[in-house]
């Protein structure tokens, strides 16, 4: 018999207890396609069981950074006491989880990122990469964990239509998060893709029917829709992906999808400008990494720019947005590098960091930028 994902059943049990006891539940997800899809699945599963979702929160990376943030906690503390569930973030939020505990929240972390030197002081942690997790497959997108959690929560109450709609999101977000399409992921992707074209979600219908995507194969359309849903467009603290995936009318969805197409064209232009600026700067530099930042760059574009630059430079790319006292950055690296390991060796200079071996993020004080850069160069040499 296959071992279970550590603490998955324990988390499901605690959530069911909260539903039965009419406790407030807060869902706190990362604002990308993986985090948003995880939040939609968990919210719909909890609501289906009659639970009370008091709030769904996504940190705006541009204004408050990544992971569990102080700003987010201060906004949500009005709901305390509550069960506070993080999705696609939290494994590196040590200080913030302690703050949440002090505010009277009970924290459950559901995350798939690399585990750092220690674990946050949460009540329950589900992360296949933590010590003692015997489940053989380690490379879920967070949405895969959210789907398995919804199965454990709903059990026999999981209707066929609910299962199909969760699998559509799981397939799309696993592809969006560029997780290996093998083992459990492959199974969920194959099943989910079968249902997408007959989806009941108005947002998915509207996105897949866009005239710009006509004539493309299903998989090509999935990639296009995913990049559309990852465009930064926040209204009432909710990212476009969440608004589109939970929309109740097709006409509302069509309007939003069309506006995202327009924003996508503008985004391409802004990414292009960042890349041109970086190429000018690194023209005569011969270092094992690219480490560049600017106060004018948008944080949400840095991962995209870094992914494009990797193709030409074949080295780890660290890009950051410089703010008043701190800087926040995104990293991409070719498959033979492990940037989380690199940041562990340079963690003295960082406030927070985390992610995957080839895609991660960091936050640090501006006065530590040069020291961090030198430490990274030394590590990669």
Number of strands: 12
SSE order, as H and E? HEHEHHEHEEHHHHHEEHHEHEEHEEH
Instruction: Please state how the strands of the largest beta sheet are arranged side by side.
Output: 2-1-3-4-5
Strand content: 15-25%
Largest sheet: number of strands, sense, barrel closure: 5 strands, parallel
> What would CATH call the class of the largest domain?
Alpha Beta
**What is the share of helical residues?**
40-55%
Q: Segments where pLDDT lies below 50 for 5+ residues?
A: none
CATH topology type of the largest domain? inorganic pyrophosphatase (n-terminal core)
Give a concise summary.
It is built from 15 helices and twelve strands. Helix content is 49%, strand content 16%.
Written overview of the protein:
- The structure is a single chain.
- It is built from 15 helices and twelve strands.
- It has 381 residues and is of the alpha/beta class.
- It has two domains: 8-196, inorganic pyrophosphatase (n-terminal core) (Alpha-Beta Complex); 284-380, Diaminopimelate Epimerase, Chain A, domain 1.
- The strands form three sheets. Strands 2-1-3-4-5 form a five-stranded parallel β-sheet, with helices on both faces. A five-stranded mixed β-sheet has the order 8-9-10-12-11.
- The model has no long low-confidence stretch (mean pLDDT 95).
């Amino acid at each position: 018999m296959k071992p279970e994902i550590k603490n998955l059943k324990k988390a499901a049990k605690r959530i069911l207890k909260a539903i039965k006891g009419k406790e407030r539940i807060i869902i706190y997800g990362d604002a990308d396609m993986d985090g948003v899809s995880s939040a939609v699945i968990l919210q719909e599963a909890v609501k289906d069981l009659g639970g009370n979702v008091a709030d769904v929160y996504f940190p705006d990376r541009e204004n408050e950074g990544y992971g569990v943030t102080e700003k987010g906690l201060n906004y949500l503390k009005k709901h305390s006491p509550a069960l506070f569930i993080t999705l696609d973030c939290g494994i590196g939020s040590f200080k913030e989880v302690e703050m949440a505990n002090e505010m009277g929240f009970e924290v459950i972390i559901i995350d798939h990122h690399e585990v750092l030197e220690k674990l946050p002081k949460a009540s329950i942690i589900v992360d296949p990469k933590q010590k003692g997790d015997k489940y053989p497959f380690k490379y879920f997108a967070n949405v895969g964990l959210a789907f398995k959690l919804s199965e454990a929560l709903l059990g026999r109450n999981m209707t066929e239509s609910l299962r199909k709609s969760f699998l559509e999101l799981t397939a799309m977000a696993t592809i969006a998060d560029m997780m290996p399409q093998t083992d459990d992921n492959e199974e969920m992707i194959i099943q989910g893709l079968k249902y997408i074209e007959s989806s009941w979600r108005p947002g998915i219908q509207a996105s897949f029917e866009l005239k710009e995507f006509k004539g493309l194969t299903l998989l090509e359309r999935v990639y296009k829709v995913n990049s559309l849903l990852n465009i930064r467009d926040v209204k009432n603290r909710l990212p476009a992906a969440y608004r589109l995936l939970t929309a109740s009318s097709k006409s509302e969805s069509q309007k939003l999808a069309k506006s995202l197409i327009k924003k996508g064209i503008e985004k391409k232009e802004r990414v292009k400008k960042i890349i041109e600026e970086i190429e000018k700067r690194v023209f005569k530099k011969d270092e094992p990494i690219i480490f560049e930042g600017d106060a004018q760059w948008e944080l949400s574009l840095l991962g995209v720019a870094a992914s494009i630059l990797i193709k030409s430079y074949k080295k780890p790319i660290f890009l950051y947005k410089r703010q008043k006292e701190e800087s926040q950055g995104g990293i991409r690296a070719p498959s033979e590098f492990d940037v989380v390991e690199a940041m562990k060796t340079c963690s003295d200079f960082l406030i927070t960091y985390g992610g995957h071996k080839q895609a991660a993020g960091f936050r640090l004080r501006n006065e530590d930028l040069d020291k961090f850069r030198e430490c990274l160069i030394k590590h990669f040499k």
